[in-house]
Backbone:
């Protein structure tokens, strides 16, 4: 197997008031024609969990209420995984093309988290009309918009 090299293209900048993706100067030209898209898929690195112990976890005890007692890590959204890669669909508030800054409504990443890639959200590739989910998460919100006001504390066991 080949060794892979991944290089961040920027970082998350978040405060209580706003969240931004700050793109490194070398990658600013890659933002060309991103305007017009309402959402982006952001691939980012769970840098707080990039250690040997976190990367060795393959199963976890019931992270969600009502879920199976033991779950494989690939059946969770946990940051603890063999490769700490995360994916979030984020709504674009505005883009500063000169500075390489994208303001987003929300992203579940910490301040200074490395951003690996950005892709435009397109329904033809990213939306599933009738997704199937196990019964234990069937009552979760059906969209990112609904997730914002959902009481996630009722779902998680941590």
Residues:
């Amino acid at each position: 197997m080949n060794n892979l090299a991944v290089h961040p293209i920027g970082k998350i900048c978040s405060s209580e008031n706003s969240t931004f993706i700050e793109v490194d100067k070398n990658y600013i030209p890659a933002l060309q024609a991103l305007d017009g898209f309402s959402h982006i898929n952001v691939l980012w690195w769970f840098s707080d969990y990039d250690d040997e112990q976190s990367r060795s976890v393959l199963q976890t005890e019931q992270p969600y209420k009502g879920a199976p007692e033991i779950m494989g890590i690939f059946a969770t959204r946990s940051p603890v995984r063999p490769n700490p890669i995360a994916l979030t669909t984020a709504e674009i508030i505005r883009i500063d093309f000169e500075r390489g800054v994208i303001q987003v409504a929300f992203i579940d990443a910490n301040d200074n988290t490395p951003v690996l890639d950005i892709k435009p959200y397109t329904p033809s590739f990213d939306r599933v009309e009738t997704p199937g989910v196990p019964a234990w998460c069937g009552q979760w919100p059906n969209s990112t918009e609904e997730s914002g006001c959902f009481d996630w504390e009722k779902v998680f066991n941590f």
Q: What stands out?
A: The radius of gyration is 17 Å. The domain at 10-123+131-154 is CATH 2.40.30.70 (Elongation Factor Tu (Ef-tu); domain 3).
